[in-house]
Design brief:
single chain; 288 residues; alpha/beta; Rossmann fold; six-stranded mixed sheet; globular
């Protein structure tokens, strides 16, 4: 989900759009249900470092061939155009994120039936500043005393998230304009940290700052839900269903990798199991 340079119908029309926009297209079997699905978003959508990598997406976007859009498209019988790109902000939906990489909005058309949007965590560098910034502060506090990161940042993240709301709402409205026949799903962020306690060796955060960062993620998801509701989209809650699968859990249980990953995934990001779980949540929302 991190910023640039970090972690940041199989019709002729769709195939042509993919060639122009530099996105991934999956052709579903002839017997599958008709429908075009476009996925927009950042690295929680693209699935950086999860193997196998997408063979057709721009390499800078760190897109996995088994991220949740790919898996959900197969399960739903939809033809996928995946424009998600690691490090994307809401601004990158309408402008080129990297040289030669088309704006994500370029993947949209009036033929689309489903659009998912997973965005917002990189705006104002909320994700990278909170995760790396707090870890850099708390690494000096192995005795688990207080909430040093909260003391340093206070309301900084909450204020930034609130100020990012209009950009997210504007993005949803632009999707309506470019894909007027599509149902839009704003996909929230899954639970990253435990609901109590900490795991300092895996992620150097005090218990107090785990609580603080959980609050920040709640603020982010609440903002996304509010903007979705206000702009004619459906919010997909991935936080509550993912509780108990945070980065502190054993490798066989967790859906998020810790600071030193043990599987092919970016740190503090969903692993393959996490992307599969997110796919199931998106499938349920679309079918619902």
């Amino acid at each position: 989900m991190k910023r640039k340079g970090a972690f940041c119908a199989a019709s002729g029309l769709v195939l042509a759009a993919a060639a122009v926009c530099g996105v991934t297209v999956i052709t579903v079997p002839a017997h599958a249900a008709a429908g075009l699905y476009v996925a927009l978003g950042d690295s929680y959508t693209s699935g950086p470092l999860i193997t196998p990598a997408s063979a057709t997406a721009p390499v800078e976007c760190l897109q996995s061939a088994v991220n949740y859009p790919h898996l959900a498209a197969r399960a739903l019988g939809l033809s996928l155009t995946d424009a998600s790109c690691a490090g994307a902000t809401t601004s990158d939906l309408a402008q080129s994120q990297y040289p030669g990489v088309s704006p994500q909005f370029g993947a949209l058309s009036a033929s689309d039936s489903v659009v998912t949007l997973g965005i917002g965590g990189n705006d104002n560098e909320t994700f990278i500043t909170s995760v790396i910034g707090c870890a850099a502060i708390d690494v000096t506090d192995p005795l688990n005393i207080g909430a040093p990161c909260k003391a340093a940042f206070g309301n900084y993240f909450a204020d930034n998230i609130a100020s990012d709301g209009p950009a997210v709402g504007g993005a949803v409205r632009q999707i309506h304009a470019l894909a007027p026949n599509a149902r839009i799903y704003v996909v929230g962020y899954p639970d990253i940290l435990p609901q109590s306690g900490n795991c300092w060796a895996q992620q150097p955060l005090t218990t107090g700052d785990v609580t603080y960062l959980n609050g920040i993620e709640h603020d982010l998801n609440a903002m996304l839900a509010q903007e979705a509701a206000a702009n004619g989209a459906t919010f997909v809650d991935t936080f509550d269903p993912s509780i108990g699968h945070d980065l502190c859990k054993p490798e066989s249980v967790r859906w998020i990798e810790p600071l030193i990953p043990s599987s092919s995934a970016a740190f503090d990001h969903p692993n393959a199991a996490g992307e599969a779980a997110l796919a199931s949540m998106v499938e349920a929302a679309v079918n619902g």
